[in-house]
Design goal:
Low-confidence stretches: none
Order of helices and strands: HHEHHEEHEHHHHHEHEHHH
Radius of gyration: 20 Å
CATH class of the largest domain: Alpha Beta
CATH superfamily of the largest domain: Nicotinate-nucleotide-dimethylbenzimidazole phosphoribosyltransferase (CobT), large domain
CATH topology of the largest domain: Rossmann fold
Mean pLDDT: 97
Shape: globular
Structural class: alpha/beta
Strand order of the largest sheet: 3-2-1-4-5-6
Number of helices: 14
Number of strands: 6
Length: 347
């Protein structure tokens, strides 16, 4: 498929936005009384181009890949876990598997490269690039061809979601050491120090966090000559992080709303927006995670997260948890009586 990361993005429907906003003022409640739920319904109306948005059909793509920087002992878990979790996804035992079933969502897993390869599995798409990225303390994480393939893998997942008439897209990730990659990417894009953004990831202690910070410092020094956001993504990202960025860009180009997950997914979102600013209106942010740098990423994207639950799992789990809340926002918008219908006096 043809995919140009710099290609034009669709614009939200201003008419649908204004119609939805006007409809909110007619409902039997004080203006703004439902807070962020009103904002979400209006935003979805603009993105879906209809005054009454829907979120019946959710598409979830989880991208799995390993990272060369895992050799620097930056994760509390062994690298074999990435491939093992791919099998767990296929068997329906992961958190996102349970959430997808409860939501009635379509769930696909895209395996981009794992050191521990579980082989062909049902429900797992093999879009193999390599066993892992390079250790970005020593070389760019991806060469140009690998970056292009990862971006395209994300765009292809989005194309499947679009062809499946999804109402919204959720991107998840799995990859041991990918919190380190996301931290390095965020530090480079925001010109922030690792001390301000690096957190515990999957459960590092204080010594582990300090080690992660030192690794990110080395990576930033090595790749200080990166020329733009796409170059930064290739040098410091991961296959799954680039796939998320590609999916987000493709979503904006096709006009499909995205519900963004946690720290790693938000780092990918920042990269996507820096590559193509037209992506930003299509992103809804589900939650602020427990990871130290997530709030700073949300601030950089001028984003307000719907939830704050102390999550730090990834997989798209936080975005999936937000779906029922967003569905309720749509139901309230569509099904509440107006003052006139209810015979209720206005202020």
């Amino acid at each position: 498929m043809d995919f140009d990361v710099y290609g034009p993005c669709r614009l939200p429907d201003a008419g649908a936005r204004e119609a939805a906003r006007a409809h909110q003022l007619l409902l039997t409640k004080p203006p703004g009384a439902l807070g962020a739920l009103e904002d979400a319904a209006v935003a979805l109306a603009a993105l879906q181009g209809r005054q009454r948005p829907r979120l019946d059909r959710i598409w979830i793509s989880v991208f799995a890949a390993d990272h060369g920087v895992a050799a620097e002992a930056v994760s509390a878990f062994p690298q074999a876990v990435t491939g093992e979790m791919v099998r767990n996804f296929a068997n329906g035992g992961a958190a996102i598997s349970v959430l997808a079933r409860r939501l009635g969502a379509t769930l696909e897993v895209v395996q981009l490269g794992t050191v521990n390869d579980p082989g062909p599995l049902p429900g797992v798409i093999r879009a193999w690039i390599a066993e892992q990225t390079a250790n970005f303390c020593q070389a760019p994480a991806m060469d140009a061809a690998q970056l292009r393939r990862a971006l395209h893998a994300g765009a292809e997942s989005l194309a499947r979601a679009h062809a499946g008439d999804a109402h919204a897209f959720v991107g998840g990730e799995m990859g041991i050491a990918n919190t380190t990659a996301a931290t390095a990417l965020a530090c480079a894009l925001l010109d922030e120090s690792p001390e301000s953004l690096a957190g515990a990831g999957t459960g590092l202690d204080a010594a582990g966090i300090a080690r992660k910070q030192a690794v990110v410092v080395r990576a930033l020094q090595r790749h200080a000559d990166a020329t733009d956001a796409l170059d930064v993504l290739g040098r410091l990202g991961g296959f799954e992080i680039a796939a998320l960025a590609g999916a987000y860009i493709a979503a904006a180009q096709r006009g499909l709303p995205v519900i963004v997950d946690g720290f790693i997914a938000t780092a990918a979102a920042l990269a996507a927006v820096r590559i193509n600013p037209g992506v930003r209106p299509w992103l809804l942010f589900s939650h602020c995670s427990h990871e130290r740098g997530h709030r700073r990423l949300l601030e950089a994207l001028d984003a307000r997260a719907l939830l704050e639950l102390g999550l730090r799992l990834g997989e798209g789990s936080g975005a999936a948890v937000a779906v029922p809340l967003l569905r309720l926002a749509c139901d309230l918008h569509a099904d509440m009586a107006t003052f006139e219908q209810a015979g209720v006096s206005t202020a």
